[in-house]
Amino acid sequence: MQNVSGPVPQLEMVEWVVDHQEAHGHLLIHGTTLGEIVGRARAALTRWAAGTPGGVRLKILHAGWWQAEPCRCRRSLASSNHPGWHYHRATAGDVGAWRGAEVRLVLNPCRHGGDR
Prior knowledge:
single chain; mainly beta; five-stranded antiparallel beta sheet; 5 strands
């Protein structure tokens, strides 16, 4: 498949993906099993969404092999918040590939009669 050239971006085990062409508002999580992925996502949620009324649940969008590479997009004033790296699906034999998943946070409806 694709071959990453140049330095491979060092991603956290749980990355909040914003301002990417690939996705917006997802978590990109390293993990070899779904249990490990869900555990890391839940740990991140306790830090980020502890006060969310009604709670948050997880929706795994895609699990499998991933690759990240430095951004080679053309820079302009219109893309000043553009990320320094991009990610895409990969295969086990791709250079720098790792197992993980894209995970979306889904808000549960408020159960205490508050605004929805």
